[in-house]
């Protein structure tokens, strides 16, 4: 029996040897080849790259061979390469698309395949639907064999991100940074950039280790504990972490405290609107902070809320000018650069903000909390049986559910999952309290996200949500 291949918010992922097999990589590559032949200009070729995970390099070669077997010329990365570098290559080379072998921030025993559109960003929902259908149909086109050329994709990428940030201003500010590649495909790049520009830094977890020892390559707590310790130990003004394929960012303030993606997004948004005055609308995913709405409203910018997955943000970037778009997982992008998230670029831009404002990262976050009210966030990943997961979502959607713990549900929103707005305290001008239940479409996992005006209230809401999920 043919194994079912399910696509999530950003391509296909599976457990190595169980789901992620070379045969399944061939199936997905065949579907992508068929899509390119039918819907793009195959003569433009396809770019293929890979991350530092087990079997990624071999899987990339297999995918390249399938695509070449369909008559499509391939540019194959010569080394482990960040996903955003592959996206940039697709756009700058005028390729028909890009394939990346990666499982992003997942644990070490996962791997997967992403597809990038010719515009240099996540494939749109419409594109992914076509590819999914072709996987189910068993598409495996053949033609006159295309060439496979190995290329260096990092040099042009470094030049591009450095051209987008003010590297001289960062150097003159004389801040010191800690950088953490989390053993991922961003390894060595920020260190090289800072070395080339004379910027003080301390680099950790730059070596190749596909076991990601002791962590998942996701730039959130607890996985960034070593970065937090490094910032404090070496007296750094900020720490930046990138995930397994370097398209997401996490950060640490000068006191070692974690700066979540919501605050990173907010710091960057405020800077772009107040200092840079870039034109365009703002896009945020359904599970991100409402602080962004307040910042956008102050500057009279239209804000779009979209389902979870950067492909939805990229889709909007194809339609209109977007000054910045981002998601809860640390993926942030800009229309004027690429419709793609980029952890390394955003590390440089955060350093740029610090340099221009003359403040370490923690002070920038404190400024936001003072002006726009205290906003605190938390998330829990609940690994539960499928029946429990589905029951929780059904009960959350039910009109009979009007309370969560001590609080009444003021209203619900079902854009992606089900969100409750609660009658808990906002502590004056603080965050409007909410909780979001969202079931994974590919694994027995339910995530709950919460925002409120204090860390204590966030934890209380999350605990009430977990009890609700478990039927307590």
Secondary-structure map:
Layout: E1 7-8, E2 11-15, H1 22-39, E3 46-50, H2 56-69, E4 74-77, H3 83-93, E5 97-101, E6 110-116, H4 125-137, E7 148-151, H5 154-164, H6 167-173, E8 176-180, H7 189-196, E9 200-204, H8 225-233, E10 238-242, E11 249-253, E12 258-259, H9 261-276, E13 281-285, H10 291-298, E14 303-306, H11 310-319, E15 322-326, E16 332-333, H12 343-357, H13 361-372, E17 376-383, H14 386-397, E18 403-404, E19 407-413, E20 418-422, E21 434-439, E22 445-452, H15 455-469
Parallel strand pairs: 3-4, 3-5, 4-7, 8-9, 8-10, 13-14, 13-15
Antiparallel strand pairs: 1-2, 2-6, 5-6, 10-11, 11-12, 15-16, 17-22, 18-19, 19-20, 20-21, 21-22
Helix pairs in contact: 1-2, 1-4, 3-5, 6-12, 9-10
Task: Give a quick precis of the structure.
The chain is an alpha/beta fold. It has 15 helices and 22 strands.
Describe what you observe in this structure.
The protein has 472 residues and is α/β, with parallel strands linked by helices. The chain has four domains: 7-152, 3-Layer(aba) Sandwich (Alpha-D-Glucose-1,6-Bisphosphate, Chain A, domain 3); 157-259, Alpha-D-Glucose-1,6-Bisphosphate, subunit A, domain 3 (Alpha-D-Glucose-1,6-Bisphosphate, Chain A, domain 3, 3-Layer(aba) Sandwich), CATH 3.40.120; 261-372, Alpha-D-Glucose-1,6-Bisphosphate, Chain A, domain 3 (3-Layer(aba) Sandwich), CATH 3.40.120; 376-469, TATA-Binding Protein, CATH 3.30.310. 38% of the residues lie in helices and 22% in strands. It is built from 15 helices and 22 strands. It has helices at residues 22-39, 56-69, 83-93, 125-137, 154-164, 167-173, 189-196, 225-233, 261-276, 291-298, 310-319, 343-357, 361-372, 386-397, 455-469; strands at residues 7-8, 11-15, 46-50, 74-77, 97-101, 110-116, 148-151, 176-180, 200-204, 238-242, 249-253, 258-259, 281-285, 303-306, 322-326, 332-333, 376-383, 403-404, 407-413, 418-422, 434-439, 445-452. The strands form four sheets. A seven-stranded mixed beta sheet has the order 1-2-6-5-3-4-7, with helices on both faces. Helix 3 crosses helix 5 and helix 6 (167-173) packs across helix 12 (343-357). The model has no long low-confidence stretch (mean pLDDT 96).
């Amino acid at each position: 029996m043919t194994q079912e291949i399910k696509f999530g918010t950003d391509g296909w992922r599976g457990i190595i040897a169980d789901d992620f097999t070379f045969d399944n990589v061939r199936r997905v590559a065949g579907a992508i080849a068929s899509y390119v032949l039918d819907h793009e200009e195959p003569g433009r070729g396809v770019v293929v790259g890979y991350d530092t995970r087990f079997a990624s390099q071999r899987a990339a070669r297999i995918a390249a061979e399938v695509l070449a077997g369909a008559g499509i010329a391939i540019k194959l990365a010569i080394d482990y390469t960040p996903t955003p570098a592959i996206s940039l290559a697709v756009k700058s080379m005028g390729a028909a698309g890009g394939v990346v072998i990666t499982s992003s921030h997942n644990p070490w025993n996962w791997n997967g395949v992403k597809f990038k559109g010719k515009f240099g960003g996540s494939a749109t929902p419409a594109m992914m639907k076509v590819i999914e259908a072709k996987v189910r149909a068993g598409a495996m086109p053949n033609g006159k064999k295309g060439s496979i050329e190995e290329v260096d994709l990092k040099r042009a990428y470094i030049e591009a991100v450095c051209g987008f940030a003010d590297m001289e201003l960062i150097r003159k500010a004389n801040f010191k940074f800690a950088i953490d590649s989390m053993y991922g495909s961003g390894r060595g790049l920020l260190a090289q950039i800072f070395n080339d520009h004379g910027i003080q830094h301390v680099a950790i977890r730059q070596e190749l280790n596909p076991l990601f020892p002791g962590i998942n390559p996701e730039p959130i707590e607890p996985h960034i504990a070593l970065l937090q310790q490094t910032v404090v130990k070496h007296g750094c003004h900020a720490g930046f972490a990138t995930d397994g394929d370097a398209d997401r960012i996490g950060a640490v303030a000068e006191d070692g405290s974690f700066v979540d993606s919501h605050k990173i997004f907010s710091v960057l948004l405020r800077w772009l609107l107040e200092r840079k005055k870039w034109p365009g609308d703002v896009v945020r995913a359904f599970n991100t902070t409402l602080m962004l709405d307040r910042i956008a409203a102050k500057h009279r910018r239209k804000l779009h809320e979209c389902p979870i997955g950067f492909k939805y943000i990229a889709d909007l970037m194809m339609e209109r000018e977007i000054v910045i778009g981002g998601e809860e997982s640390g993926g942030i992008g800009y229309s004027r650069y690429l419709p793609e998230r980029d952890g390394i670029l955003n590390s440089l831009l955060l350093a740029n903000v610090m340099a221009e404002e003359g403040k370490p990262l923690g002070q920038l976050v404190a400024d936001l909390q003072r002006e726009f009210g205290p906003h605190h966030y938390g998330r829990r990943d609940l690994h539960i049986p499928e029946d429990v997961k589905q029951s929780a979502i059904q009960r959350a959607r039910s009109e009979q559910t009007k309370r969560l713990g001590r609080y009444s549900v003021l209203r619900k929103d079902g854009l992606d999952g089900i969100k409750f707005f609660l009658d808990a305290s906002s502590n004056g001008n603080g965050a409007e309290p909410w909780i979001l239940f969202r079931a994974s479409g590919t694994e027995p996992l339910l995530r709950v996200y919460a925002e409120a005006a204090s860390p204590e209230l966030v934890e209380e809401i999350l605990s009430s949500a977990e009890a609700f999920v478990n039927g307590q």
